[in-house]
Specification:
3 helices, alpha+beta, 21% helix, 43% strand, 10 strands, 159 residues, four-stranded antiparallel beta sheet
Length: 159
């Protein structure tokens, strides 16, 4: 019991800096569905770095996030390549609450991808201990990548 209490106190003092991306291939289709989730307070800090017109003292809570701006922000911070060809995501859905922001994007990737690469620099300019987790379910391949400040890019062979 005492260990659990100490662990909870430690976690409240040292916040976790992580994002989560899940990539799934739409069955019998050339589309990849990407789901992105991160803490909303961390997102606000990174968003202010991307959109310099946002005053540093401005409350991001009052900013109207357009899908176009969120799509541009995400495609700047996260680069996806299939078979060594860069592809761009199209934002389809956004969910924001006081704790987290979730984005859904679609990518046209071809029906038989053989190699997948991703570069994720979300929050890497802010936190030295940032971890960006990527879970893949593509072309019968299931696996995960851990991207960090030191290693923001990862690739997998889908054969």
């Amino acid at each position: 019991m005492f260990r659990i209490l100490i662990l909870n106190i430690f976690l409240s003092i040292h916040p976790v800096h992580v994002t989560l991306i899940t990539v799934n291939q739409v069955q019998d289709n050339d589309t990849l569905k990407l789901f992105f989730r991160m803490y909303f307070d961390d997102f606000k800090r990174d968003y202010k770095l991307y959109y310099h017109q946002v005053r540093p003292d401005a409350s991001v809570d009052t900013i109207n996030f357009s899908k176009t701006e969120l799509n541009e922000f995400f495609n700047d911070r996260v680069s996806v390549s299939v078979n060594r060809k860069p592809i761009t995501g199209k934002l389809t859905d956004v969910s924001i609450n006081s704790y987290e922001i979730c984005l859904n994007l679609f990518y046209l990737a071809g029906k038989n991808p053989k190699e997948f690469s991703i570069r994720n620099t979300v929050l890497t300019r802010i936190f030295s201990d940032q971890a960006n987790m990527v879970y893949l379910n593509i072309n019968k391949y299931e696996g995960a990548l851990k991207l960090t400040v030191e290693k923001p890019e990862g690739s997998v062979s889908l054969k």
